[in-house]
Design goal:
Elements: H1 2-7, E1 19-20, E2 25-26, H2 28-37, H3 48-65, H4 74-88, H5 104-120, H6 127-148
Helix pairs in contact: 2-3, 4-5, 4-6, 5-6
Pfam family, one: DUF1844
InterPro entries: DUF1844
């Protein structure tokens, strides 16, 4: 009995990959351990583990290189949404796949979201923020109409 009390207990994490959702980075050690435990499947596409490990490696490289993200402001939020709309309008390639693809219903949803944001923030934005939102909406609506009729 005394010997069992000294040993305590052992916890084994049997999950394949552990993701740190707060920082958006994967746990590289857990991904590597999962790869050692799982035999590779001979498919033409990378496995979920390989994709997660690649994402984790990329996040780790960015962290080591001191890459910083822009401060979140109203303007950066509007630019982020407008960039997504441009991707879905087929105006710019998708950053993750480098392919140009159109998804007009999704582009319309983002444009409608920006319009709702404009309505809900009326009277609460400074002059530059109002002008930015108005200009971005005008440009995206114009592009949407052109894409819809082509």
């Amino acid at each position: 009995m005394e010997e069992q009390e000294k040993k305590g207990f052992v916890v084994r994490d049997r999950r394949k990959i552990v993701l740190d959702e707060v920082e958006g980075r994967g746990n590289v050690e857990a991904a590597a351990a999962a790869e050692r435990q799982e035999p590779k499947e001979p498919t033409g596409e990378p496995s979920v583990q390989e994709k997660a490990k690649a994402d984790a490696d990329q996040a780790a490289r960015k962290a080591r290189s001191g890459a910083t993200y822009p401060q979140v402001t109203f303007s950066t939020f509007v630019f982020s949404l407008s960039s997504s709309a441009l991707v879905h309008l087929g105006e710019v390639p998708d950053p993750s796949t480098q392919k140009v693809e159109k998804d007009l219903p999704l582009a319309k949803q983002i444009i409608d979201t920006l319009a709702m944001l404009q309505e809900k923030t009326k009277g609460n934005l400074d002059k530059d923020e109002e002008q930015l939102l108005q200009t971005v909406l005008y440009d995206l609506r114009l592009r949407f109409v052109k894409q819809s009729h082509s």
